[in-house]
Amino acid sequence: MTKSELIRALNEKLPDRHLDDVELAVNCLLKCMADGLVQGERIEIRGFGGFDRHHRPSHIGRNPKTGEAVQIPEKVTVHFKPGKDMKDRVNASRDQCEIEE
Questions:
Q1: CB under 8 Å to 33, separation ≥6 — which residues?
Q2: pLDDT tens for each residue of the chain, 101 residues long
Q3: Which domain covers residue 10, as residue numbers?
Q4: What is the number of structural domains in the chain?
């Protein structure tokens, strides 16, 4: 689902709100979440999951074409860990997907 699809779906659930107001609220929420992560905060949405930063140290990797050793610099990545409710809902939908074991 794209951000614009999310905004339209939320606007359908809140028909008394103007589309621009819904878009402003969604953008504000996403900006606050991103700013919190930049500042090193953990974001937790109960029933959905949590976002946290993970530090990845620099290491030596390999170029898959040439096999040449390459220095990969350290970086910070965003990690999402789904909450229990989210995991349960996704696992319950396994029958709807073409998952082969």
A1: 43, 51
A2: 899 999 999 999 999 999 999 999 999 999 999 999 999 999 999 989 999 999 999 999 999 999 999 999 999 999 999 999 999 988 888 777 665 65
A3: 1-41
A4: 2
The structure tokens listed for 45 are 């949405």
Cα–Cα distance between 5 and 7 in angstroms, integer?
5
The one-letter code for the residue type at 96 is: Q
Number of alpha carbons in the 13 Å side-chain half-sphere of residue 91: 7
The owner of tokens 């696992």 is: 91
Domain of 67, CATH number, reads 4.10.520.10
